[in-house]
Automatic annotation (TrEMBL):
The lineage of its organism: Bacteria, Bacillati, Actinomycetota, Actinomycetes, Pseudonocardiales. Gene3D superfamilies: 2-enoyl-CoA Hydratase, Chain A, domain 1. InterPro entries: ClpP/crotonase-like_dom_sf (IPR029045), Enoyl-CoA_hydra/iso (IPR001753). Pfam families: ECH_1. This is Enoyl-CoA hydratase/isomerase family protein. It comes from the Bacteria.
Length: 254
């Protein structure tokens, strides 16, 4: 099986695929825990499109590097998001990410190998979600930057954890640990830290062994409601996020 060109195309995405068709996608920065940047924001939806078109991919595992899934973000690298044209680029990319994750013609297993306080929604839309005992969850960037969390984090947390819990988490900027996430129904399993990725790959191999049409249509069946919410509410949420981003230059004015 030839190595696809996209395996070496994206700076913050490392790929590997086993003989059973399980594709491993690992976020990273220079081989260590990822610092999410504007480039990552641009590349991830593009990579998902290439993954979806590669028929050798039978299941996908997404995880982080080291002891963090994703907990650092380089805000300035996102560009002048207070300008309409710059925000439209961000809005377009952000709207595509969750839609493409949910519409992949294969099951997705998310593995939280540590803190997931930036774009935790990437894990929550996975079909199976495994958490290391060291995982934590929350939304640090939006409260910190002072912009509305409208990029899908609000939709996914409400759908998975419920309205009251989503409001508390996204208003306060607080974090929950893996056991609390399990109690909330956010994760499928909590496992020992050193075995989290192994468990995720094990599950993915079982799913990859199922018939191709079953994998694709079961994916659609189980995600129909979440897909509707994403298509309906993420573009609106990102418009509101853009308004608060446009307000950033004025927040300290009297």
């Amino acid at each position: 099986m030839a190595t696809p060109e996209y395996f070496d195309k994206y700076d913050n995405l490392a790929f590997g695929r086993d003989s059973e068709g399980v594709l491993l996608l690992r976020f990273h920065t220079n081989g260590g825990p990822v610092v999410f940047t504007g480039r990552t924001h641009q590349d991830f939806p593009a990579a998902l499109e290439e993954i979806s078109l590669d028929r050798d991919n039978k299941a996908l595992v997404i995880t982080g590097t080291g002891d963090a899934f994703m907990d650092q973000i380089d805000g300035p690298s996102l560009g002048e998001i207070f300008k309409p044209a710059a925000w439209e680029k961000t809005r377009s990319e952000g709207s595509k990410v969750l839609q493409r994750l949910i519409e992949l013609p294969m099951p997705v297993v998310g593995v939280a190998n540590g803190p997931a306080t930036v774009h935790s929604e990437y894990l929550l839309v996975a079909d199976i979600h495994i958490a290391s005992e060291r995982a934590t969850y929350g939304d640090s960037p939006h409260p910190e930057f002072g912009i509305t969390g409208g990029d899908g984090v609000q939709v996914v947390w409400e759908e998975i954890a419920g309205t009251a819990r989503a409001k508390w988490l996204l208003w306060t900027g607080e974090q929950i640990d893996a056991q609390t996430a399990l109690q909330w129904g956010v994760v499928s399993e909590v496992v020992a830290h050193d075995h989290a990725l192994e468990r995720g790959v094990q599950i993915a191999r079982g799913l990859a062994a199922k018939p191709a049409l079953y994998r694709a249509l079961q994916k659609q069946t189980l995600n129909a409601n979440l897909r509707r919410r994403i298509l309906q509410d993420v573009p609106f949420g990102m418009a509101l996020e853009g308004l608060t981003a446009a307000d950033l230059p004025y927040q300290n004015q009297t």
